Amino acid sequence: MLAEDGVLLREGLAGLLDRFGFRVVAAVGDADALRAAVDEHSPDLVVTDIRMPPGFADEGLRAAVELRRRHPDLAVVALSQYVEQSYASELIDSADGHGVGYLLKDRIVDVEEFVGTLRQVVNGGTVVDPQVVRQLLRRRRDPLARLSPREHEVLAQIAEGHSNAAIARNLVITEAAVGKHISSIFTKLDLPPTEETNRRVSAVLAYLRHDSP
């Protein structure tokens, strides 16, 4: 089944796949419809866009990760113009990495090769665009790349020695929001609570290592 918010691209893909012997059981335009259609039709393969309504962020990718948790045997190929790093690793790692693909639309130049990739994924293979691999490896080498822009701002404030109250005043947010951002920073930097280390200090050290020439 297909999930793509662009009508022309969705219909074009459906026609292309039909021509190459695939049976398209559903073609939908948003992530909620994708979830419902998978539950209804139990397809062998989902080909989904990443950015879909309503937010046009990573709805399609998040839906794909969720569907792979619920249906480990479901093959999924994500199509995107971008590398959405937030959930890309989760998708590729899901179901032990079997039956999954992540392709960049602009780098698909051969129709038969694309169709061959879909068949490979349906048969349990893993196909990831080399550019996606490079970006994910770069992210894993740089733990700060996992932080949101706001989390970067909060961490910079911590590095300057500000308290939570001062950070809240400086960034014009609530102290509760600051606490949530700091908790998220600790999680993303793999800093669990321990008696031996101060997590704020460890986070600052990570920031300074990243920011040093």
UniProtKB/TrEMBL annotation:
Residues 140-211 form the HTH luxR-type domain. One of its GO terms (molecular function) is DNA binding. SUPFAM superfamilies: CheY-like (SSF52172). InterPro entries: CheY-like_superfamily, NreC/VraR/RcsB-like_REC, Sig_transdc_resp-reg_receiver, Tscrpt_reg_LuxR_C, WalR-like, WH-like_DNA-bd_sf. Keywords: DNA-binding, Phosphoprotein, Transcription, Transcription regulation. Gene3D superfamilies: 3.40.50.2300, Winged helix-like DNA-binding domain superfamily/Winged helix DNA-binding domain. Residues 1-120 form the Response regulatory domain. One of its GO terms (biological process) is phosphorelay signal transduction system. The modification 4-aspartylphosphate is found at residue 49. SMART domains: HTH_LUXR, REC. PANTHER family: TRANSCRIPTIONAL REGULATORY PROTEIN NARL-RELATED, TWO-COMPONENT RESPONSE REGULATOR. This is Response regulator transcription factor. It comes from Phytoactinopolyspora halotolerans.
